[in-house]
Every structure is written in structure tokens, then in C-alpha cells.
Amino acid sequence: MESSRDDKLAATLSALRPAPRPAFAAELDERAAAGFPPQTRATRSPVARAIARLRGLSPQRVLLPAVGVALIALAITSALVAISHTGSGVSSDSSVASAVSSPASEGAAPTQMAPNSSSSSAGAAGGTGATPSVESEVAGPEVEIPTSAAEAADSEGGTFDRSGRYASGAPHRDVERSAEMVLGADPTEVSDDAAKVFAAVHSTGGIVLNSSVHDGSGESAPGANFELLIPSAKLGDALGAFSQIAEVRYRREATNDITAPTVGVSERLQDSNAKVESLLAQLAAAESDGEREAVEAELATERRHAASLRSRLTALQRRANFSRVLLRIKTGESSAPSASGGGGWSIGDALHDAGHILAIAAGVAIVGLAILGPLALIALLIWLANRAWVQRSRQRALG
Amino acid sequence: MDLPFARSKGVNQTLVAAAQEAPREADLAFDLLYRSSRDDVYAYVASLLRDGPAAEEVTATAFERAYRKRKRFDSSRGEPRAWLFGIARNAALDELRRRGRQAELAVEPADLLAAPAHESAEESERRIVVSTALATLEPRQRELIGLKFFAGLSNAEIAAVVGISESNAGTKLHRAITKLREACDGVL
Q1: Which domain, by its residues, includes B62?
Q2: Residue B56: what pLDDT?
């Protein structure tokens, strides 16, 4: 009985089964034979078409090109970074440069550099007697003087009337110059080359502040270090003369405009001198002892102030008039082939460069992951949320 | 003197052409699936949408999606018919979402009224009663009835399509049939 009812129910439901129209069935068969070309492609927007095409692709076919594009982009970026990094290293960051204190790059005045601790002798090729006075006058007051115009303007309590923050209106520029040079010499010729350096300094009227010459007899390697003061007007001649002594492995020149502090100190000195004159006049006109004592006290203070300003002005003028030069004579292979242009590209260099490029590539990859990782995570979360929302809305649509 | 080379070249060209023209395994399998499921998919989709033109469009869309995904089908994860009906179900539900309508598992009123010429009065009455009884079922129960009797799926396939276990599908289907039979009480 139950089975009969079920059979009748099944038969009735089968009779209720919707059947496709013959025309639709035939059309669908044709489309199936043609590989189901999209019917609404003409009416779709390009974006919708692209999305539909992407959905039709397998994950492997989407993922592989995406990974390929990402790898190519990574390689190009690494190459660009490596090239730019290598380029900057050649121009300014050689090992020689790092071994020598660099006033220009550190923003410090040459006179503020620490003296060479290995200096064993101090002498002057052209003016031995002047050396101590130069050292004391240069090294003393200059420590207090700012090395840039901006710092000077701040320390002086404001801008300069005539020149502004950078003394742009000054008719004459006071420029402090400095230089570094590394010469490559044969170990047996270090002493001769050092003598030539002294001679060159003497010929330009310069001063040897510190010098040390090692001929290789001890444990230290042959070489020489010089800390020189060269008249700024003859700095070019001196460097040219040094270049003739031995192979130039490294050369660097720097300038520092000290016009602003010079003008500022000069103007303040004029004011101080005028005040001293005024106080002298007051002292001459003083009628009582008390008034005279007060003026004398003020006069003494102002004279000390004027002396200090004068000393600072002298120091500034010396910085402009004399250029500090650090000269080294080194022996052995050059550690900065780009500076000298000598030396070949060895297997070791290739391995070093390869390691360098790999390190850069790893760095770029890490940075790329740091950027793309969160983006990929956000995209994944959006995709998962959208998928869950679609599934939920489908269930709601079913009722 | 160039005969061996020329013959070899010709044979190679023939083999390559034959290989290119031969339909691949996935295409053959899909062709079989299409031929065996075309009317079933339409019947199921039409029962969900209760709209002939929309059912035709959704059926075509479902086969188009399935065709584009045919190489991604993994036979170890289920039967191809269940996979195809899953795609058709999603396409039909997407259509319902677009319309903002509730799914109604019933054939079109026009089909109900259009009784076959050879149908007896008893059969016609039974058909109307069953159709009316179907309308009283919950949508999910109507869908199970449609998958079972319109699409002809097995319980395992229904479970895969709806996303439940096979035993659960059997239980739910039994409840739906019982409820339908009760609604048709006195006629069947």
C-alpha cells in the first residue's frame, strides 16, 4: 500500500518535471559543440569580461604568471638598487675615504679634527718657528666658532645687517678650504716621497702641523701621514705638486663658506671698539672718583670682549687664509681601485660583488614582502569575507 | 635522394595534426556529462526559478561555467554530476539573489494548467494536488524533492550538492517526502 502510494507520487512528480523547449535544447547543443562561447560578451564591459576570463582560468595559470611577474619585478628592482648603490659607493665611499677623517662630509671644520695620535714629529718645512703659534691660535678660539653660517647667525643672536643669514650681500667671500689626498708609493721610496712632500710644502709657504713617516723598519707598514696648512691661494699648486710625487689613489677637496660668521664677528668688533672709544671719552670727562671707577670697570669688560672678538676674527681669517690638507702616503695594493683606476677584477671581487648583489636582493625582497604581505593579507580577508557573504546570501535566497 | 627526409616530415606533420585535432580527455568527459545531464539541470533550475526564460539562461550559464572549469574538476572529490549540479545551484541562487526573490520549488503555473492530451481526469487531479502540496513545503524541502525527482540524483549526489552528509540528506529527503505525502492525503 505504502509502496504503491510512493510509486504514484514518484510518477506524478516525474510528470511535473519541467522539460526544456526543443529550440533551447538545440541552441544549447550548438553552444556545447562550439565550446560555450559567452552569449553576453558583446554587452559586457571590459572589466566584466576580464573578470570572467580570470574566473575561467585555473589557479595555476593565474598564479604562475603572477609569480613570474613578481620575480621579474624583484630582479629589476634589485638590479636598479644594486647599480645605484654601487655607483654611490664608488664616488664617495671608498675605504680610503672612510679611513681618513672627512671634514666636509661630517660638516666639521678642518681645524676641529683630532690630531693624528701616531704623529711622531712636528715640524715646518717653510716656517718651523711659526708652527706653535699657528697651532695655538688656530686650535684655541676656533673650537667655539660655529662652522656654518647658519650656526654662526644663531650663536651671534640674530642675522647680520649687511649680509643676512648667509651674508649673501658681502662683497668678499671668506671660504675655508680643505683637502685630503692619498698617494700610493713603493715601500722603498716612502722616505724620498716624504722629503718631496716637505719640499713641496716649503715651496708653497705652507706649514706642516703633524707628520709621521714609517720606512718599514719596525712592525708598522711603510707609509707616511701629514697634516698640513697650505696658503689657500696656493692650495691648487700644492696639490698639483703632491700629485707629481706618486700615484694619486684618492683626492678630495671641500669648501666651507665662513663669510657670515666672519662678517658678524667683524661688525661686533667694530661696535665694541666704538664703545671702548665712547667709554674712554666718558672716562676723560669723569669728575668724581666713583664715576671714574664705574667707567673703568665697564671699559675693562668691554676691552676683554673686544679682545675675544678680535681673536675669533683672527682665527676665522686664518681658516680662510690657510687650507688644511691631510696627506697620506700608502704602500701596497690600492684598496680603492675606482679612485686610482688600476687593478683588475678578480674572482674574489666577483664573489664579493655577487654577495653584495644577493644581499641587496634579499633586502629588496624583505621590503617587498613587508609591503606586499599586508596587502595580500587584506586581499585574502576581503576575498574570504566576500565568499562568506555570497554563500550566506545564496542560502538566504533559498529561503 | 631527399625521399626519406620528405617522407619523415610528412609522417610527423600527420601525427601532429592528429594529436591536435583529437579531443582531450576532459573535453570528452564533459561532453558525456552534458549529454546525460542537460535536461536534468534544466528541470532542477526551472523548479528553483519557476521562470522558463530565466531557467534557460541560468542553465546555459551553468554549463558555460562548468565547461570553463572542466579541467579543474577533481574526480577524487566527488561525482561529476554532483559537481555540475553544485554549479547550477549556485548559478540559480545567484539569479534569485539578483531578483531578490525567494526560491519557489514548483513548476510554472502554465505547465500545471497545460495538461497532456492523453492524461486522464484522475491523473490531472493528482498532478494538481501534488503541485499544490509541493507549494506547501519549505523551500529547502522542495529543493530536495526537485533534486531527487526532477534531476534524478542519488542521495550521495544530493548530499554533495547541498553540502550535507549523505545520511543527513537521506533523512531530510524522507521527511520531505513524508510531508508531501501527507499534504496529498486522500489523493495518492
Answers
A1: 23-183
A2: 92
Cell numbers that stand for B57 in this block = 539562461
Quick check: B124 and B187 in contact, CB under 8 A? no
A contacts of B181 (beta carbons < 8 Å): 5-6, 9
For the stretch A294-344, pLDDT in tens is 999 999 999 999 999 999 999 998 888 999 999 999 887 655 444 444 456
Inter-CA distances, A299 with A270, A302, B12, Å = 15, 5, 114
The Cα A178–Cα A113 span in angstroms is 11
**Residues of B whose CB is below 8 A from A395:** 93
Q: Grid coordinates in use for A157? A: 643672536
Q: What CATH code is carried by the domain that includes residue B135? A: 1.10.1740.10
From A201-215, A255-269, B98-112, the region with the lowest mean pLDDT: B98-112
Please report whether residue B8 resides in a domain. no
3-class DSSP state of A45: coil
* Angle (CA) A320 A325 A328, round 5°: 175
Contact A260, A165 (CB under 8 A): yes
Nearest to A13 among B31, B34, B145 (CB): B145
Instruction: Please list the residues that pair with B183 across neighbouring strands.
Output: none
Nearest-CA distance B69 → chain A (Å)? 6
* 8 Å CB contact between A318 and A221: no
Nine-digit cell string for A152: 654662526
Contact A308, A138 (CB under 8 A): no
- Percent pLDDT > 90 in chain A is 25
Mean pLDDT of chain B: 78
Which three three-digit cell numbers place residue B156?
Answer: 550521495
Which cell goes with A358?
A: 644577493
Of A9, A17, A36, the CB nearest to B181: A9
Cα A54–chain centre separation: 46
A307/A299 Cα distance (integer angstroms): 12
Structure confidence by residue, pLDDT tens digits, A147-188: 444 444 444 444 444 545 666 677 778 888 999 999 988 888
- Paired with A180 in beta bridges are A252, A326
As a whole number of angstroms, the distance between CA A189 and CA A182 comes to 15
Using left for φ > 0, alpha for ψ between -120 and 50, and beta otherwise, residue A74 falls in alpha
> In this structure, what DSSP letter does residue A121 have?
B
For the record, the C-alpha cell of A183 comes out as 698617494
Q: How far apart are CA A390 and CA A368, in angstroms?
A: 32
Give the containing element (helix H, strand E) for A36.
none
> Strands A207-214 and A247-257: what pairing?
unpaired
Task: Report the number of distinct structural domains present in chain B.
Answer: 1
Query: What is the ipTM metric for this complex?
Result: 0.74
Closest residue in A to B144 (Cα) is A398
pLDDT at residue A58 in the model: 62
